[in-house]
Structures are given as C-alpha cells and as structure tokens.
Write a structure and sequence with these properties.
The chain is an alpha/beta fold. About 45% of the residues lie in helices and about 15% in strands. The chain folds into 3 domains: about 5-50, Transferase, Pyrimidine Nucleoside Phosphorylase, Chain A, domain 3, CATH 1.20.970; about 75-325 and about 430-445, Pyrimidine Nucleoside Phosphorylase, Chain A, domain 2 (3-Layer(aba) Sandwich), CATH 3.40.1030; about 330-420, Aldehyde Oxidoreductase, domain 3 (Alpha-Beta Complex), CATH 3.90.1170. The strands form 4 sheets. The chain has a 4-stranded mixed beta sheet, with helices on both faces. A 4-stranded antiparallel beta sheet has the order 6-9-11-7, sandwiched between helices. Strands 10-8-12 form a 3-stranded antiparallel beta sheet, with no helix packed on it. It is globular, with a radius of gyration of 22 Å.
Length: about 450
C-alpha cells in the first residue's frame, strides 16, 4: 500500500477503506510513514471529513495499536468518564471518589493540559506526594480498597493516538469530529470500561463551539460505543464560562477541597457531577432514570461520603493533603492581580479559549512537552456570565508568577479582553444542554425488568 494513494483518494473526497486505515496506523506507529505525508493526509481528512466507517476503522486501529485492559469481576462495575476538554474543569477530581462512594469502580486514565484546556493529572500533581504513574497491581488494589484510581495515560496503551495527537497539535488538525471521536473513544475502549459517560463541552472554551457539532460528535461516540459492545452516553454541557470559580492547578484542587469541606458552594460543578454520575447509574442499571440517579448521587454528598472517599483516595495514591494545605500559604505571597469594575453592570460573555490561553502564557499550562508548570498560577473568576457587579467590585483575580515579565496592568488588561460587559441584565447560560444516547438503556432497563434503585451490588 502507498500513503500517496491514500492522500490522493481522500483529497478527491473518496472514502478510505478499513484495510487502508489499519495499514496506515500500523505503519505510522512503526515509523515507516514520514510525518510530512501523515500531516498531508490529516489535512485532507480535516477538509473532506471522516465518514462514520472511517472513524470506526480509525478507532479500531487505535485500540489495536497497544495494550488493552481487562478488569476482573472482583473489582466491581467498571465505569469511565471523559471530557472533551474545558477550562476550570475539575470534575474528575470530584467525580471519581463520588462514583466510588455510589458503589461504582473508576479506573481512570487522565491527560495533562492540552492546548488551552487543563488536565486532571497536572491538577493532581499539585498535591505533594500524589503518584500518577501506577502499575496494574496498584490500580487493582486501589479499586478494591477505595473504588477509584486516577493515573496518567500509560505509554503502552493507544500509542497511535499519542503519535497522531502530537502531529494534529503541531499541524492544527485537531478539530475534526471523526479524529476527535477516534482519539477519545480509542482511549476509552482500550481502558476497558463497559459503561462510559462523555462530557461533551460546547461553547467558547470548547473544541465544539456550537450545539450542532457537539451533537454530531455525541452521536458518533454513542454509535461507536454500540459497535464495540459498550454502553456510552454523552452529556452536552456549556463551556461559555469556566466551571466553578477557580482555574489553575492548585486553585482547582483547593476549590474541590473547599466544596467538600463546606467552605464554598459551586452549584455548577455539583450539578455537572450529579448529572454525569446519574447517567452512569442509569447505564449500569443502578438507577431507573436520571432523576433517581441524581438522588443517589446527592445522598452521597449530603452524608459526607464523598469527602471521606476523596481523602482515602488521595492518601492511597500517596498524596499528602496536610502538606497541600500548608502549601496554600504560599498563595499569600504570590503576585495577586485583582481586576475591579469601573462602573456597575453585568458580565455579558467570556472568551474562554482566550482565557485559557492567557493562563497558559502565565505558566498554568504548557506549550510543548517538558515545559515547566507553575501550579499556583491561576485565576479566580469571582463574576461569571450573568453576574451583576457594582462599581469597584472585584471581577476576577489573577495569581501570577512573581517573575512574569508583564506588569500587573498588562496582565489585568489581557484578562479584561476575555470579558464583555452589559449595562442591562444578562441571562446565565444553562449548564446542561442535553443528554445523548441514554434512551436505549432506559428502555432496556424497563423492558427487562432489570432496573433497580440504588447502586449496583
Ligand atoms: N481529547 C482527546 O482525548 N482527543 C482529542 O482529539 C480531543 C480531546
């Protein structure tokens, strides 16, 4: 087979076959296709788009490129959650122990920051001692003892995605629905969970800027799930503003801890976790419908079960929360840039991708592998879309590295370019747009009489 033929074929708008895609991915991993030819093909795929058959073939080839995990029944009902990437998205930190408290098992492989979006692994590494590289035996032990484990992607799983992703990043060919679906689902299928919920972000801070694209992606992901014998549902959620208040690695972990210990309320973060958890409970037949699933999730939070599970989990992965709390003292000495309102008004919109980029430029994220992360760097978005503010009120606070070459004024102005304001009231965006792919399972549960309340035994 010849890669030039594949490029010509796709450029002319003709579908690639499963055999061609399988050959291509194998050759790419073996290093026998030059990266410039792969790049040309990726660009042709972006222009002509992937058909569903091509997406399916690419997903299959990605999974086949590396190790596939299998979980014994003794570790419980294995579930997984993935987000397509957002800003201030600390959901996994809260949801993993929360699902464990609700009786599910969560062996989660997470990523580092990608582009303007943050990564769970970078956030967890801001907790002193937290180990993100665990072997299989340790993961099994954590699942049995705590019910969840969150680790960095292993190099032996889906190596083809790693290679393609890097190249897509370097050639600006990331944002194509079929390529994103194969990348996300390839990783989820290889990680072995039978029940998967995807948080499909939609808005100015997401890859999918509008609901049609988010819906298209969700339908592809659900169909891939069916084809590979997994139960997959997607929750399309708003990313026109950061989730919660904090953005940045240490600040986001602090926000989760503050929420669990009752020092702060983050209604949007709770709502997202409750919905994602409820969807997983329906998929696993631990709840008859989303409302019943929500009740189970909320009960765990109210009775303090999530806090207890969070502490046990962090300790089991070597994290020292007392040292983390001591480290927070360093925030007081960090450079703080408060931006205040010059007149009364409302926040009309936030350019969340630009906000993520600003924080990346300040060291909260990285441009290339190996860039140093500054965990304390971040933002508190005290006012979000729809918030009213008075003259002189703090709109947002940046935490900047003392050696950031920009002045406070420059940083503050860069931050304000990510906001727009209005003199009249502005509606707050709805967080949950829609759930895709759950109808089938609700029907299955009712028809077979298998639906039951409460977490799976
Ligand atoms: N997240 C992924 O894992 N892959 C993509 O292509 C985009 C978001």
């Amino acid at each position: 087979m010849d890669v030039l033929q594949l490029i010509r074929q796709k450029r002319a708008g003709q579908e690639l076959t499963e055999e061609q895609i399988s050959w291509l991915v194998k050759a790419a991993v073996e290093g026998t296709v030059p990266q410039y030819q792969l790049s040309a093909l990726l660009m042709a795929l972006c222009y002509e788009h992937l058909t569903y058959s091509e997406t399916r073939a690419l997903t299959m080839a990605f999974v086949a490129s590396g190790e596939r995990l299998r979980w014994p029944p003794s570790v419980g009902t294995i579930v997984d959650k993935h987000s397509t990437g957002g800003v201030g998205d600390k959901t996994s930190l809260l949801l993993a122990p929360w699902l464990a408290a609700a009786g599910l098992s969560v062996p989660k492989m997470s990523g580092r920051g990608l582009g303007h979006t943050g990564g769970t692994i970078d956030k967890l590494e801001s907790i002193p001692g937290f180990q993100v590289n665990l072997g299989r035996a340790d993961m099994d032990r954590l699942l049995t003892e705590v019910g969840c484990a969150v680790v960095a992607q292993s190099t032996t799983m889906v190596p083809a995605d790693k290679l393609f992703y890097q190249l897509r990043n370097d050639t600006d060919t990331v944002n194509e629905d079929g390529l994103i679906a194969a990348s996300v689902m390839g990783k989820k299928l290889a990680a072995g969970a039978h029940y998967i919920v995807l948080d499909v972000k939609c808005g100015s801070g997401a890859f999918f800027k509008d609901i049609e694209r988010a819906r298209n992606f969700a339908q592809i992901a659900v169909r891939l799930g069916h084809d590979f014998g997994r139960r997959v549902a997607c929750v399309i959620t708003n990313m026109d503003q950061p989730l919660g208040t904090a953005v940045g690695n240490t600040l986001e972990v602090k926000e989760v801890l503050d929420l669990l210990e009752g020092r702060s309320q983050q209604p949007d973060l709770i709502e997202l976790c409750v919905t994602l958890g409820a969807v997983l409970l329906v998929l696993t037949e631990g709840a008859t419908n989303v409302e019943a699933g929500r009740e189970i999730m909320l009960e765990q939070l109210e009775y303090g079960m999530v806090l207890e599970r969070f502490k046990n989990w962090v300790a089991a992965q070597g994290g020292d929360l007392e040292a983390f709390r001591r480290d927070l003292g360093r925030l007081d000495g960090y450079r703080k840039v408060e931006v205040r309102a010059v007149r009364r008004g409302y926040v009309a919109a936030m350019q969340v991708e630009a906000l993520g980029e600003l924080l990346r430029s300040m060291g909260a994220g990285r441009y290339v592998e190996g860039d140093v992360i500054y965990p304390l760097t971040g933002l508190l978005a005290q006012k979000k879309v729809g918030s009213e503010f008075a003259e002189g009120e703090v709109l947002a606070t940046l935490y900047a590295r003392p050696d950031d070459p920009r002045s406070d004024q420059e940083l503050g102005m860069a931050l304000m370019r990510c906001y727009s304001f209005s003199e009249s009231p502005v509606q707050r965006p709805e967080l949950i747009h829609e759930i895709v792919g759950l109808e089938d399972y609700l029907q299955i549960a009712w028809q077979q009489g298998t639906a039951r309340l409460g977490p799976p035994a």
